[in-house]
Fold this sequence. Notes:
The protein is α/β, with parallel strands linked by helices. It is 35% helix and 26% strand. It has an eight-stranded mixed sheet with strand order 3-5-4-11-12-13-10-14. Strands 1, 2, 6, 7, 8, 9 and 15 form a seven-stranded mixed sheet that branches.
Amino acid sequence: MWDLVIVGAGPAGASAALGALAADPSLSVLLLDRHDFPRDKSCGDGIAPHVLDLLAEVGVTGILDDWTPVRRFVLNRGQVGVDREMTRPTWVVPRMVFDRRLVEAAQNAGADLVRRRVRGLTVRRGTVTVDGDFESRFVVGADGAHSVVRRELGVKPGPAALAIRGYAPTPAARAASQVIAYGPGRQPSYAWSFDRGDGWSNVGYGELLADDRPRPSRADLLTHLETLLPGATQGGKSWWGHHLPLAGWSWRPARGPVLLAGDAAGLINPMTGEGIYYAVLTGLLAGRAIADALRAGSPDAGTPYRRHTSRLLSKHLRHTALVAQLSRSERILDAGIRAAAADQHIFDDLVELGLADGTLTRRLLRRLLP
């Protein structure tokens, strides 16, 4: 009987283990993942400094010290653009590197890691059984966009975007920057080029999926990328498509012994497609909520988890959903970019809203809706 079984050992799963073990190092924690590490994962690879702040709270420091920080952020749509330095730098680190280091930190903290493709779970009074083999008092589903745990709980997926990612040599014009170029049509719809600092960039294109238009093909996605960022696909490799389950106006974790975190919970920023901050934050909070429930002898970790996530994310999610809706208007999207170009404070507001837990400030709202 495990205290905690975590399905998925990516950032959300590893963080859940770290959160639980930081609260109580004596807990028995098992991480299950269908892959061996290191393994690739399709993603923009951007890591906000807020992620490192969260990890430092559980004793994980220096994890990106050997990678080059990126200080410039470039945002454009056609002839409208902004190019500014961020207040705090971000990092662009392949998931093969970041995820391996994070899961190793969880193992060093006391978690066990087993390779296993999970296919189902059974919830009974006082215990949850994963695949009929692993019994646990609590389970965290951190198994990504196509979460088996979410499906078993009967939680329906929300809106989603589709993106493709590759790695290509960094051109001089886009060096030392994270570049986003918005495309036409329904938002979010943009191409990106994020310099890793080692001569290569993470490049890609993604757009919102909709029932009233055909699903884009791989060729469509690559064509849009090359159109918005000419030359971005030249010399590219490791192309990989992926779905992004976008966050909505609200999110209320269910009570009980099974919690969802990160992509499995549908927590991808609908403005930017960013998800690593949400994954680490909700993973840590899920682990702590479970440690608290075990300490109290309660079978319900979902209620304290909902309380803690609501305090930190509810307002932010409402505001990102609102700005995502507003940005579907080309006029409002252009107004936001122009305002960020004219005012460093508004630029900083947009960065916080898009990469971490920022909210819609009055000064930003006034510029979006003059």
